[in-house]
Amino acid sequence: MSRKGAIIVLDFGGQYAHLIASRVRRFGYFSEILPAETDVKDLKSAAGIILSGGPQSVYEAGSPQADPEILKLGIPILGLCYGHQWIAQIAGGTVQPGAVKEYGKTPIELGKSILFKNVPPSSVVWMSHGDEVKELPPPEYGHFKTIASSSSCKIAGMADEEKKIFGLQFHIEVAHTEHGLTILRNFVDLCKPEPWSVESYAKHVGEQIKSEAGDKKVFMLVSGGVDSSVAFMLLNKVLGKERVQGLLIDTGLMRKNEIKAVRDAFGKLGIDNLEVVDASEEFFSNLKEIYDPEEKREIIGNTFINDQQRIFKEMDLEPKATSQKPQAKWLLGQGTIYPDTIETGGTKHADKIKTHHNRVEVIQKMIEKGLVIEPLKEFYKDEVRKLGEELGLPHELVWRHPFPGPGLGVRILCAKESTLPEKIDETDLKLNGSYAVLPIRSVGVQGDGRTYRHAIAFFHSKPTEITERDMELATLVPNSIPAFNRVLICLTHEKSFVPEISPGYITKERADLLREADAIVDEEMRAAGLYEKIWQFPVVLLPVGTRKGGQSIVLRPIESQDAMTANAVQLPSNVLKKMTDRIMKLEGIDAVFLDLTNKPPGTIEWE
Ligand code: XMP
Questions:
Q1: CATH 3.30.300.10 spans which residues of the chain?
Q2: Using CA atoms, how far apart are residues 284 and 506, in angstroms rounded to an integer?
């Protein structure tokens, strides 16, 4: 049963379902995500329903379907992308593949609608679709009118204003849609939902932790990142030190000086139930000769779990049951947050983009058995940070850039041999001067699905001066040439070179090299006062150089609000130059690139 007065997001598997809910929560209202098929009876107490996008076609057999009765509930409904098409289909309209697939920023003309209060009639929106609504539902199903059109999609928006049922082909929940938040706000205001705040929700989560834990203790892997640190603090606070044991596994894939910083931060707060264990050799040995990104993630996740289970036994936390002393019971704590679950295909219809380390198979099985506690699984990053500050964690720790669970493991690209895309139409590329196709692929996300494609690098006469044209190319190239999902600018060379592959997997030497480059970037960003101005700054090591045996570094500064979508950041030329010059002094690095790809079509990390 949905909570009274909530805005419900029905999930058709879109990558953005959580983004919609997080935006609504930031307006100060409770929003939760429920499966598309939720019974209409369970939606009666909702204030409004938003139907998310999704990777399938509404007319396909087996595609996710909501209960058609929701259209008769008499509460406001807004369909986005797949949701828009679903409403059209159910109400008797027609949905078909569009003549042109629209991906990316698209100009739109808006008509009159209560949804568009305070929104100008022409603006730019984010489109990501292959199908479109070809015909509006006929009059016997309501009074639907077209309220938005783009050049290739005539019914990009429709409304039955009387029944307050709306459909939009574009994604108002992503930052790329110019007035998206105003439109969402207009819809939410129509729904008159119940007020909500992180603080009040934290109390509810505290109660939830107590009831889930019962009389059990919690053994928790702490990575040093914001999420696991906040989760660990929260468990300590709610259950008390005696019932929580933290474990920090040094994987050899952590940042420079990271372990000491984490220990010090908790030490200052009197949290001393954190054990640190060096397992780096085991991680490197398990990752030997592994090249595939998903396989790497799976191995890192499994090694974590094996270590955790072994150490758990070694620490003798689970004493043998005796008649006087019943066996103590432990749960596994994890700092999983909302986006981690969705991007692993954690909701029923979502396509799998990448397996997060805390969602590998062993953990999934433990979750099914009720052996895992994840106090932050319904929170977004900004909410986790708010909570962390409330719990008294140091500012430095709470505002650290997000760092992936598998650590530098997903930033050390591995390759056995060179791979190149099959055929490229070079006509467009030639117009843009000198370029090189990198013989390596990375993970991206397009139209709600995973891609694994090549990166292309462009060259300039002033390498560290990034222009608006460079930024445009980052959108244009992946949209028009399917071989690429990433666009780089070379920061060290004016003229293109033939990139050579230097076969390699994850080793301590490569991790050390990346650690140094990463530390340089961190230092320079802080020195320039830019560290807290951006969301995250992955630094990536590529087994690609100007000659055999050479490697290169990719800088990926990005802005984001919640990691679901992200924009590449245009850093000042002097900052880029300083970093690049220092990185080029590292032995073995012979080129530095800047990644200008937005998400989508790239993901934040390369793997
Ligand atoms: P992507 O690369 O999917 O990343 O755009 C979205 C956000 O998630 C972080 N990330 C991870 N975090 N375990 C984590 O805890 C993981 O396996 C993982 N992979 C990516 C990434 O750094 C970004 O903030």
A1: 434-595
A2: 7
Q: Is the CB of 402 under 6 A from ligand 1?
A: yes
Is 343 one of the catalytic residues? no
Of 59, 69, 75, 60, the C-alpha closest to 5 is 75
**Residue of 229, 338, 356 best suited for mutating to test ligand 1, as the one with most atoms within 8 Å of CB:** 356
CATH 3.40.50.880 domain range(s) in the chain: 7-191
The pTM score is 0.77
Q: Is residue 369 packed enough to be buried (19+ CB in 10 Å), middle (13-18) or exposed (0-12)?
A: exposed
Q: What superfamily in CATH does domain 201-410 come from?
A: HUPs (3.40.50.620)
User: Ligand 1 centre and the CA of 604: distance in Å?
Assistant: 7
Measured in degrees and rounded to the nearest 5, phi and psi for residue 30 equal -75, 135
Provide the angle, in degrees to the nearest 10, between the axes of the packed helices 508-527 and 573-584. Answer: 150
pLDDT tens by residue, 351-365: 666 666 677 787 888
Domain with CATH 3.40.50.620 in the chain: 201-410
Residues 19 and 562 sit within 8 Å (Cβ to Cβ):
yes
Q: The domain 434-595: what is its CATH number?
A: 3.30.300.10
pLDDT in tens, 297-352: 999 989 988 998 888 778 766 655 555 555 558 899 999 987 776 555 545 555 66
414 is catalytic: no
Supply the residue whose CA is at minimum distance from atom 12 of ligand 1: 404
CATH superfamily of 7-191: Class I glutamine amidotransferase (GATase) domain (3.40.50.880)
